[in-house]
Every structure is written in C-alpha cells, then in structure tokens.
C-alpha cells in the first residue's frame, strides 16, 4: 500500500504542477524532466508526517529496482526528500507510469554505488557535473520492491 496520509504538494509550483499532471494522466503526461523519463517518488515528511511527492530521473536496473540520486543540482546540501528517505526507509513508494509500488530505500556505497552511478549518468550525464560542483558526496539511494 502506498504511503498513506495527507498529501502536501511541493511549495515550488512547477513541481506541484508536474506531479498533478503525472497523476491525473496515470503517468502518460508529466513523465519527463528536460526530455528524460522520470518517476514520482513518494516519501513521508520526517517532520510534518505528510506525504511528499517528487519527480526524479528514472534510473532502473530493469529488474524492479530503482535508484534516486540526491544531487539537488550540485547544491551544498542534500534535498529534503533524501532526509525523508533516511528517516523513513520503509515508508516509500514510487510511481513509474501507471504502476505505483512500495519500496525499501537504502543508501549504497563502494562498488554498488559505482554500478548504479554509471546507470544514472547514462540517463542524466550532468550527475557527474553536479558531483564536481559540490564538496559533499552526493548520495545514491537504491529502492527495492517490498512484498
């Protein structure tokens, strides 16, 4: 069952509009970011407890797992959705097209991160530029389906 509770749209109107378009169309519209496929990540706000939805690049292994990259364009701080994942790793859902499923989130490092990072930069090469632009290590979180 997807993350339940009161949904609070992003205060940034373009994000809120994209999520609305994605959901209203069953994932057939609003499903790209700058021409690349995207998914909608559902998290629970670690402070508010409200459901948050964020469009992110679609990075998958083709076998049911996904990765999300907490790049925030190379900003000096992690995005809020990343902190929500860390606080509530089993209270996560992802919508890819019409399919909405529950996932477990886990940070990856080392060789596993390198493998996923290569997949991510195939989708969005700017991830390398974002990492070069910041002193922080950009987290990569793998989402694994829950039964």
Specify the CATH architecture. Roll
Estimate the helix proportion, in percent: 25-40%
Q: What is the radius of gyration computed over CA atoms, rounded to a whole number of angstroms?
A: 14 Å
Tell me the overall shape.
globular
Could you name the CATH homologous superfamily? Electron Transport, Fmn-binding Protein, Chain A
Strand tally, please? Answer: 8
In whole angstroms, the N-to-C terminal distance is 10 Å
Strand proportion: 25-35%
SS class: alpha+beta
Per the CATH scheme, the topology name is Pnp Oxidase, Chain A
Total count of helical runs of at least 4 residues = 4
Number of domains: 1
Provide mean pLDDT, rounded: 97
Reported for the largest beta sheet, the result is: 8 strands, antiparallel
**Uncertain residue ranges:** none
CATH class group: Mainly Beta
Could you describe the 3D structure shown?
The structure is a single chain. By secondary structure, the chain is an alpha+beta fold. The protein has one domain: Pnp Oxidase, Chain A. Strands 1, 2, 3, 4, 5, 6, 7 and 8 form an eight-stranded antiparallel β-sheet that branches. It is globular, with a radius of gyration of 14 Å. The protein starts with 12 loop residues before the first helix and ends with a strand.
